[in-house]
Amino acid sequence: MGPFPGGNQTQVIEFIFLGFSGLQRGRAFLFLVFLAIYLVTLVGNSMIFTLIQLDSCLHSPMYFFLSHLSCLDICYSSVTVPQILVNFLHERETISYGQCMAQLFFLMTCAGTECALLAAMAYDRYVAICNPLRYSHLMSSRVCVPLATASWLWGILDSAIHTALATNLSFCGANQLHHIFCDIPPLLKIACSDTYINEMALHMASVFVGLIPFLFVIVSYLYILAAILRIHSNTSRCKAFSTCASHLGVVIIYFGMAIVNYNRPSAGYSLEIDTLVSMLYCIVTPMLNPIIYSLRNQEVKGALGKVLGRQKGGCASLCMQ
C-alpha cells in the first residue's frame, strides 16, 4: 500500500481474502475439490454447447438459449475459480486491486446476464406451451437473437455501473475481504467512504436485474401451469411439464442463491455462511446447470448418442418445440 499524494490515507493495491483463512489443514483437499468442480463445469457446459452446435435436432429456440446459458456458466466459473485455485497454492490469499475490479466487473456481468437469460428462456417455454401454433413465428431467429443479445448487454450495463461506483470507494488501508472473491457486499463492508450510492445501486439492481426477471418467470409459469392443467391427456401433460421442470429447477436455485447473497443485512454477515452461500451461488450452480437442465433431457442424450456413434436416426424422434 502506498500513500495518497497530499494526504495521510493509504491506497490499497491488493486485497487479502479471509474466506479460507481459518483452514490450516485440508487446503490440498479443497484445492482438489475446487479443481474437480471447475473441470466438471467446463466439461459439462462445453459438451452441451458443442452438441447444440453439431446436432441439427437441437437447433431450436430452447436450445439456442441453452447454448448461451452454457457459455455463460463457463464464464461465470472461470471468473472466480482459477484465482481461488491459485490462492490455495500460496500462504496469503491475495488479489491485486486491478484484478479485483476486473473480477467484480465480469462477475456482475455474468450475474445480470443470467437473470435476463433465464427470463428469456421462461418466455420461450410460455410460447411453446401456451401458443404452440404461433411458436415458430413468435420465437423466430429475429426474436431469439435480439433477446440473447439484450441479455448480455443488460448484464454488461449493470456491471459497468457497479464497477464504476466501486472504483470510487476509499478503503483507508483496509484490505481484508471476508470473502473468497471480489464482490460488492464485502467491498462495501471495508470501505471507509460513504457507500450510500453503492448500496442504493445494489438494491435497485436487485429489483430491476433480479426481482423483475424473477417475477416475469413466476407469471410465465402460472400461465404455463394453467395451460398444462387444461390438457386432458396425462401423457401429454407430463410431456409438457417435463420441458419446463429443469428450467424451473435452475431458476429456483439461481434466484434463491442470488437473493440470499445480495440482500442480507450487513450486520448479519458470517464469514462461514457467506463463504458457503458464495460457493453455491457462483461456483456450484454453474456446475449443476448442465446436469439439471440438460443431461437428463432425452433430446440431449439422443444427440450425445449420435455423436458417439451409438444411435442413428433423424430428428423426428428427438426434436421438440
TrEMBL record:
This is Olfactory receptor. Keywords: Cell membrane, G-protein coupled receptor, Membrane, Olfaction, Receptor, Sensory transduction, Transducer, Transmembrane, Transmembrane helix. Residues 44-293 form the G-protein coupled receptors family 1 profile domain. InterPro entries: GPCR_Rhodpsn, GPCR_Rhodpsn_7TM, Olfact_rcpt, Olfactory_GPCR. It is found in: Cell membrane. PROSITE patterns: G_PROTEIN_RECEP_F1_1 (PS00237), G_PROTEIN_RECEP_F1_2 (PS50262). Belongs to the G-protein coupled receptor 1 family. It is a multi-pass membrane protein. The keyword Transferase does not apply. GO terms for cellular component: plasma membrane. The chain crosses the membrane at residues 28-51, 63-84, 104-123, 143-161, 204-228, 240-263, 275-295. GO terms for molecular function: G protein-coupled receptor activity; olfactory receptor activity. CDD domains: 7tmA_OR5V1-like (cd15231).
